[in-house]
Each structure stands twice: as C-alpha cells, then as structure tokens.
Amino acid sequence: MKKVYPVVLTPAKIDIDEGYAVYVPDLEIDTQGFDLADAIYMAREAIGAKGICEQEEGRIIPEPSKEIPKIAENEIMTYVDIDFDEYRHSIDMTAERTNVTLPRYLKRKAEAAGINFSQELQERLRERLNVK
Prior knowledge:
Elements (H helix, E strand, L loop, with lengths): L1 E13 L2 E8 L4 E5 L2 H21 L19 E8 H8 L12 H9 L4 H13 L3
Antiparallel strand pairs: 1-2, 1-4, 2-3
C-alpha cells in the first residue's frame, strides 16, 4: 500500500549544526534531520513507523490530505512517499526456523571450522539478493 504525504521542513538548530525540523500534518508527527536528505529520510521512517503502529492497534492509516499545508516563508513543503508493505518487511527481523539439507561431509567440516550456519546463510542470502 503506497501513499504520499505532504511534509513541512523548517530550518532549525540540531545539536550544534543547522538542520531541519520535520512535521507531517496528516499524521501529526514530528522528527528532525541533520540536512535535507536526512530530514526526508527521517520523515519517511516516521511515517512508516506511525502507519505500522496504527495497523498493529487495529486502526486504519490516515489518508494523505489533498490540501497543501500552509507554510512560513522560511519553510519547505514537499511530499514523501512510503510503501507501508515494503516498510513493514524491511523492519521485520522476526527469526524463523528454516530446515536446510547439506551433504554430511560439508556439515561436519563447517562445524569443525566453527561456522554459524544461520549467520552464514543470512550473509549469503543478503549478498545474493543485494539486501542490507
């Protein structure tokens, strides 16, 4: 389920650096970023987290409004897209037991070498699928 939300970015002091305060009016959430790219990334993360929480609580994720938010002269209004299904998959770190079959000699050599089968399989799958 893909949605696009209007987001308001306000230049702000973040720690000792300049950054952006981020507000997502439709979801009434705030976050911040150290620069423009980080602010948009953080907006997407906040929107994703809010949407997943809404679903977990049995509520419907609010629809993006069609109205353009009013902004001050120094603010930036932009849109941030999110695929809630993809976001949910990207943060789901629930471990699932998977049974694999190996030739006996290979299993024994790997055990003798102290190889963690789960870790090795995860690393190879991430590499093969180009996933972090």
